[in-house]
Amino acid sequence: MEYSIGDFSKICRLGVKTLRYYHEIGLLLPTRIDKFTSYRYYNEESLTRVETINRLKELEFPLEKIKEILDTCKDDSSIIEYMEERLKEVDRQITEYSLIREKIESFIQQEKLVPEPLGDVVIKDVPGIFMASIRFKGQYSEINGHLTHLFSVFESVINGPAFCLYHDDHHADENMNIECCLPISRKIPAAGFKFSTLPGKRMATIMHKGDYSTIWKAYQKIVDYLNKKDFPIVPPSREIYLRGKGKILPGNPENYLTEIQFPVIDDEDPITKSIRTKITLNIHA
């Protein structure tokens, strides 16, 4: 039986525009075109072809590939090669989406773990951290580039907020001994990075909310605390970037949240303490 394009559209549940497009690309040709009206007509074999097209579309074959299959294959056994190729593509997509899922989960986890800012110095035990890092001698302005590099390589295995270790025992405008660090859940083979476990320590910590231009106030507060308690100020100190420039959106500097940490040594032996006191007095003399 022959069907007009309108009737055929109702039967196969494809829009008239879609049928015309299938005709244009050679995927589904009308069985007859009226030479006077240019109307398209289809038959029952066309319905069978539409059914096959729909089945292949469910497997997400592109239309050009469906046309190739229909033009060259006559039975199921002859499309095994196409199915194997499509299966490989699906496996590649699964791998890609798994990586995307890991990145999204990591992003959500890190944003949910950001604590509320506290204005006082707190002593706490910080657990060990497995991390990838880049250590360099330079200036503060170089930190962002190194952290961006770390994020680009280890984005799918991030296991905590990025931070910097400052290995100098005093501030230097240039050639500071800085280590940019990123906690990771597992090692990914990559050149140019150091992989290590930062030992757990007892730390004096303080939160700073706002941009980095006023972070000195938090440093003043924690140094005053350590001096008042007569704890030695030893490197490396840490700056943990709990909330900073976003990975996706630029972020608001007023909402930046940084945790500053200094090691707490409360069991310093008397001789070392005496030497440290003399050195301090000589420095300030």
TrEMBL record:
**Would you say which domain of life the source belongs to?**
Bacteria
Residues annotated as domain HTH merR-type: 1-72
Instruction: Tell me the Pfam families matching this sequence.
Output: GyrI-like, MerR_1
Which Gene Ontology terms cover its molecular function?
A: DNA binding; DNA-binding transcription factor activity
Q: Which residues form a coiled coil?
A: none
Q: Any idea which UniProt keywords this protein has?
A: DNA-binding, Repressor, Transcription, Transcription regulation
Q: InterPro entries from the entry? A: AraC_E-bd (IPR010499), DNA-bd_dom_put_sf (IPR009061), GyrI-like (IPR029442), MerR-type_HTH_dom (IPR000551), MerR_fam (IPR047057), Reg_factor_effector_dom_sf (IPR011256)
**Stated name of the protein:** HTH merR-type domain-containing protein
Name its species.
Leptolinea tardivitalis
Q: What is the lineage of its organism?
A: Bacteria, Bacillati, Chloroflexota, Anaerolineae, Anaerolineales
